[in-house]
Design goal:
This protein is mainly α. Helix content is about 80%, strand content about 0%. The model has no long low-confidence stretch (mean pLDDT about 85).
């Protein structure tokens, strides 16, 4: 059991780093990522994407984050075995859906946006295709925010009721859930969700690794 917890803790730690990496890239300039005010300006955005691989790096990290999210969702579900079965199934389902859409969003960013930036076609065709891709990604981002928020809210509510996580960590998880659901309508809340989820994931990894070490000493 402690081996599984150690592995889950390590994956959760890796996921925390995956959440952190894009934040660092954006905070340090993100030269190949269009600024928020120019995302819907194809002429400027495609030129920025073409000039640097940053967008490919960030979206690749997003795809990997989605894969790691599956392990984190299942690790938390394992701790909720004594919770109401319906609530556990509900949280796990939303967590896996969120992971799937993270991978889809990352794959779309990896493949579509750089390719559009390097297409040798009439500018109006590339602009239309770019705006369509951005529209799809915006919709996916809303789904990610909603599903991640619902997973965090339901899973941490169950964990708090059953005392399966330290209360401060479960409380932070509830805050992640509320912010994520709010991010469906308010994009700024969705951005805050990523920062809060980074802290929660790091805390969850610490809990798992500590418990694995304690069990290994018995």
């Amino acid at each position: 059991m402690h081996t599984t917890q150690r592995a889950d803790g390590l994956v959760a730690g890796v996921q925390a780093l995956l959440w952190l990496a894009p934040i660092i890239i954006l905070a340090t300039g993100g030269h190949g990522i269009p600024a928020p005010g120019s995302v819907n300006d194809p002429f400027h955005a495609l030129a920025v994407i073409k000039a640097s691989p940053d967008i490919e790096i960030v979206t690749t990290l997003m795809c990997l984050t989605g894969a790691a999210q599956v392990f984190v969702v299942l690790a938390l579900a394992d701790r909720l075995t004594s919770s109401p079965a319906r609530l556990t199934r509900l949280s796990t389902t939303f967590g896996i859906i969120a992971a799937a859409f993270l991978m889809i969003d990352g794959a779309l960013g990896m493949a579509a946006l750089p390719q559009l930036a390097h297409l040798d076609v009439r500018p109006d065709l590339a602009d239309a295709a770019y705006l369509a891709a951005v529209g799809v990604r915006n919709g996916i981002d809303r789904v990610i925010s909603l599903t991640l928020g619902t997973w965090a809210l339901t899973a941490n509510w169950a964990a708090m009721r059953q005392q399966r996580l330290p209360r401060p960590l479960a409380g932070l998880g509830l805050l992640v859930g509320v912010a994520g659901i709010a991010g469906t309508l308010v994009p700024a809340a969705g951005t805050a969700t990523i920062v809060l989820l980074l802290v929660w994931t790091l805390g969850f990894a610490t809990v798992l690794l500590r418990q694995a070490s304690a069990q290994g000493l018995r």
